[in-house]
């Protein structure tokens, strides 16, 4: 129930303004790679492999994005974001991604409209279109004679007509066209700038019919039919509005020639195929993978995931494909550059980790050497590649997608504090190399997580280590617990923006964060027999001296013990304060 109050100043306790903190979603992977179709450089949320196929098409046999996403969902993944990349800016004449298109013409050969595929790719060269001129679905009669100069008419019925309809007034002497601006009862009106040039006799008879067209679109078994379209932008049946809001295959663009709308109606067109579509996959470069985050309208590549808070796992399974097939990748150094960018994003945001693959599927020595490129708590490697069946063919694929699914499975069962290790991998039947115990021991010491087959127990993830050399950050679950706690606290403090930075607020924040961490301790996130051994929260004058308050910030210092009791990993969270009213 809403309570109304007169204008004035009212007092409200701070505690009533905040919502209790809680954990956000976790185990949500952000996948980057090449796809048959689908939007480019737009992180797109999918919740099943079938949804991925419907949006991005059937993966090419040699690609790794499709098998990775399939492995993610087979192993417990619940939701992920997919970002399709392609080479879109040519620097030296190389192929770039392009949409397929066709320009439709009028009966006189003037430009009418352009049909483009929804997104770039060779797939679009199989999109077929046709234009039909349907029989008038409305055909009514003039009931009162019209004189030259008239801008309205009385007709037998306005059923099926609408404001913006292009109508044809037809008698034995010919026809004229007008765009309706108003309908009232049985009276139709058009612009005063278009008065009739001659009279029309109601007894002639004079017919009034809408000028419309149909557009048919087909791709494989997918068919779309748009009936009774109009070239008038003011019509509810305007073709741009109708098709661009509904079609999953094409976008259309009005040529907007100087001709009147009725003269821009497309001519009847037998079925033809769009042309010019290109994938831009075999020329993809490291820059296409890395991308940039310049602003809301200029985000592409991996950098586009910076705007997706839900993602906490970053994956690029198609890096190995690009190294093998793209002219834009010259050596393994290009793979390293992209993986460094992935790790850099994770370190900067502190809300996600990079789950990475080795460029080679089964080379133990290469894995050991490659691992030395990285020293970060925000990255983890898994080895070797795994054997799976895709589209009826057996092949080795990078394991990152399957591992992300296992991480999501463990998160769902217990939480991010559960190490994603000793878990069976679904959807595979072998590994690229059968590791011996001494191989596993050595690789594990080097920070490489191994995949090992066990008799009657399946193939399992045998390790959960990061690439960090710091013993405190050696384990993946420790880093992910910190990520989860920090992001949850930051999200939970957004209510403070208009509060007054006083001791009352500090006490409120201390109680709020303490309650949240207490719940996590009880669930098993932290070590320690007592809360004092498991975590601490500090928000007082020491963490918020006058110089901090003067810049409009409140600081909370926290510590948690995810590894051993009373061995705290500390962090600070700052919340902006835009005070309304007095401070103190």
What features would you describe in this structure?
The chain is of the alpha+beta class and 584 residues long. The chain folds into 4 domains: 29-91 and 280-478, Rossmann fold (3-Layer(aba) Sandwich), CATH 3.40.50; 101-134 and 212-273, Immunoglobulin-like; 140-210, Elongation Factor Tu (Ef-tu), domain 3 (Beta Barrel); 493-576, Dihydrodipicolinate Reductase, domain 2 (2-Layer Sandwich), CATH 3.30.360. It is built from 13 helices and 30 strands. Helix 2 (65-74) runs parallel beside helix 8. The longest helix is centred in the C-terminal third of the chain and has 21 residues, at 503-523. The chain is elongated. Residues 1-16 have low confidence and may be disordered.
Query: Total number of β-strand segments?
Result: 30
Rg measurement, Å: 32 Å
Strand-pairing-aware structural class: alpha+beta
Largest sheet: 9 strands, mixed
What's the level 1 CATH class of the largest domain? Alpha Beta
List the helices and strands and how they pair.
Blueprint: E1 29-33, E2 44-46, H1 49-56, H2 65-74, E3 80-84, E4 101-105, E5 111-117, E6 128-132, E7 140-141, E8 152-154, E9 166-171, E10 174-184, E11 187-190, E12 207-210, E13 213-219, E14 222-229, H3 239-246, E15 250-254, E16 269-273, H4 286-290, E17 292-295, E18 298-300, E19 313-315, H5 319-325, H6 332-349, E20 353-357, H7 364-371, E21 379-383, E22 386-390, E23 393-397, H8 400-413, E24 423-424, E25 430-431, H9 437-445, E26 448-454, E27 458-462, H10 476-492, H11 503-523, H12 531-534, E28 535-538, H13 546-550, E29 553-560, E30 569-576
Parallel strand pairs: 1-3, 1-19, 19-20, 20-21, 21-26
Antiparallel strand pairs: 2-3, 4-5, 5-15, 6-13, 6-16, 7-12, 8-11, 9-10, 9-12, 10-11, 13-14, 17-18, 22-23, 22-25, 24-27, 26-27, 28-29, 29-30
């Amino acid at each position: 129930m809403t309570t109304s109050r007169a204008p004035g100043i009212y007092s409200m306790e701070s505690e009533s303004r905040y919502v209790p903190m809680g954990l956000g979603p976790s185990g949500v992977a952000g996948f980057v790679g090449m796809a048959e179709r689908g939007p480019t450089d737009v992180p797109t949320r999918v919740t099943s492999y079938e949804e991925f196929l419907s949006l991005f098409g059937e993966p090419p046999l040699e690609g790794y994005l499709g098998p990775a996403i399939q492995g993610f969902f087979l192993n417990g993944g619940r939701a992920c974001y997919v970002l399709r990349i392609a080479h879109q800016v040519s620097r030296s004449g190389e192929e770039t991604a392009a949409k397929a298109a066709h320009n439709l013409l009028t009966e006189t050969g003037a430009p009418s409209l352009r049909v483009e595929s929804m997104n770039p790719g060779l797939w679009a060269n199989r999109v077929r279109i046709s234009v039909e001129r349907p029989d008038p679905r409305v055909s009514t009669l003039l009931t009162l004679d019209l004189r030259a100069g008239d801008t309205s008419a009385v007709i037998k019925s306005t059923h099926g007509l609408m404001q913006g309809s292009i109508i044809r007034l037809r008698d034995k002497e010919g026809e004229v066209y007008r765009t309706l601006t108003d309908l009232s009862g049985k009276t139709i009106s058009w612009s005063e700038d278009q008065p009739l040039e001659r009279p029309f006799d109601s007894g002639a008879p004079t017919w009034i019919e809408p000028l419309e067209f149909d557009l048919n679109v087909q791709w494989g078994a997918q068919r779309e039919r748009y009936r009774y379209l109009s070239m008038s932008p003011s019509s509810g049946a305007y073709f741009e509005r109708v098709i661009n809001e509904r079609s999953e295959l094409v976008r259309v663009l009005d040529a907007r020639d100087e001709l009147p709308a009725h003269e821009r109606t497309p001519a009847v067109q037998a079925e033809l195929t769009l042309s010019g579509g290109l994938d831009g996959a075999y020329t993809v470069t490291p820059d296409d993978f890395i991308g940039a985050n310049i602003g809301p309208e200029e985000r592409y590549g991996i950098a586009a995931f910076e705007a997706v808070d839900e993602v906490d796992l970053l994956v690029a399974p198609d890096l190995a494909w690009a190294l093998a097939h793209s002219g834009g990748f010259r050596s393994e150094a290009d793979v390293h550059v992209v993986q460094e960018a992935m790790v850099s994003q994770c370190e900067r945001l502190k809300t996600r980790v990079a789950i990475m693959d080795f460029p080679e599927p089964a080379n133990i020595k290469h894995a050991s050497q490659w691992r030395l490129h990285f020293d970060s708590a925000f990255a983890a490697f898994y080895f070797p590649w795994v054997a799976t069946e895709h589209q009826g063919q057996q092949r080795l694929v990078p394991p990152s997608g399957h591992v992300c699914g296992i991480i999501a499975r463990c998160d769902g069962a217990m939480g991010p504090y559960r190490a994603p290790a000793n878990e069976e991998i679904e959807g595979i039947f072998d590994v690229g190399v059968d590791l011996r115990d001494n191989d596993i021991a050595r690789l594990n010491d080097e920070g490489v997580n191994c995949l090992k087959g066990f008799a009657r127990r399946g193939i399992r993830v045998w390790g959960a280590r990061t690439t960090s050399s710091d013993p405190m950050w050696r384990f993946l679950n420790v880093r992910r617990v910190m990520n989860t706690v920090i992001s949850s606290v930051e999200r939970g403090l957004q209510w403070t923006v208009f509060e007054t930075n006083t001791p009352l607020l500090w006490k409120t924040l201390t109680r709020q964060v303490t309650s949240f961490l207490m719940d996590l301790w009880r669930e098993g996130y932290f070590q320690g027999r007592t809360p004092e051994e498991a975590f601490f929260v500090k928000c007082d004058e020491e963490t918020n001296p006058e110089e901090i308050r003067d810049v409009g910030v409140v600081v909370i210092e926290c510590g948690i013990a995810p590894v051993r009791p009373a061995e705290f990993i500390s962090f600070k969270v700052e919340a902006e304060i835009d005070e309304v009213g007095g401070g103190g």
